[in-house]
Design brief:
384 residues, alpha/beta, D-Maltodextrin-Binding Protein, domain 2, 2 domains, nine-stranded mixed β-sheet, 32% helix, 22% strand, globular
Length: 384
Amino acid sequence: MRISKFAKVATLALAFGLIAGSPAYAVDLQGSGASFPALLIEACKAGFAASNSGANSYVYASSSSGTGQANSDKSIGDFWMSDGAYTASTKRASLIHVPLVAAPIGILYNLTSKTTLQLSASTIAGIFGGTITNWSDPAIVADNNRSTTKVVYKLDANGNPKKDAKGNPIVLRTQILNGHYTLPNKAIKVIYRSDSSGTSQNFTNFMNKSAPTVWTKSAGKVFKDGFPGDINAIANLGRVVGAASSTGVSQLAGNTPYSITYAEVNYAAANNLKIANVINPAGSSVAPDSTGVAAFLASATQDANGYLTFDYATKEKGAYTLGIVSYLLADTAYPSKTTAAAVKAYATYILSSKCSKDVGAALGFSVIDGALLAKSLSQVAKIG
């Protein structure tokens, strides 16, 4: 059958219209891994594409650090995110760590009181380790009926604490707070991450380093494997339960009165959960915000692999000691130089103030800047 000239022209015009109406990306990067930084990564997606005039874009499949690490082993996709350092024997030698996203882990709880709960590290470890099982426990009562310090820092343009000549955050003023909180005589429902999670790895590391006599096991990506007692004991059945992903634990906590969990702070509002302050080693009650995380990160050290070691014993008054960094796992030997350049551009944009500050601050993320930013960018330069 002969096709008319008009039909041919119409077909070509339609095809051209479809092509012209869709952005032509040189590289459409595929990323996967940790759920912790996913909200920021997704929120900066349009800005990244606009920053390079539509030359490159990306999609990110949020699941867990364990999935990201496994995908990196098999080179599934182009970049991967992990909330913990990846040191397994299966890690490819050409893979590097780039500290890319900083944020607090929030202690989210489901109580009706309007007063903000404050918890010390030993109390947090006791609650999640199963030795503190009731909201009226003397340890929780003591944490919330005591004097604590609140610190106000001098901030820079990124909202991070300014530092003096010695690199110490500059304190504008401190306030003494006298807490009073009446707690219910109700069993605590503990909800933990059941999947392999960098959030769990960082959270259990915090408890082990901050309260080693309570949380006696070392950090683990799977929460139940690091549980210091018998998580399947009769007393824990139905009281200590798991759910997959940050979404899963926060939704379950939101539907479970008298529950407590750990996740990114931005999950609290959507699930009608409150967020506890953490009492740090200096005796300050600190909210999980970008200022407190920045003060905590100031004490971190970094090795040649890009790994950060946190100082959980820091005496910095305003440090929120449950701050974490999510790492970009990237290759130094991509088969395609075009892909390598696009991954490098992605990392640079996420670290830029256009993403980390202009977008991230409203979502509860912290700006990586100063010496840590310089170290991150030196790692980015190795991508190739």
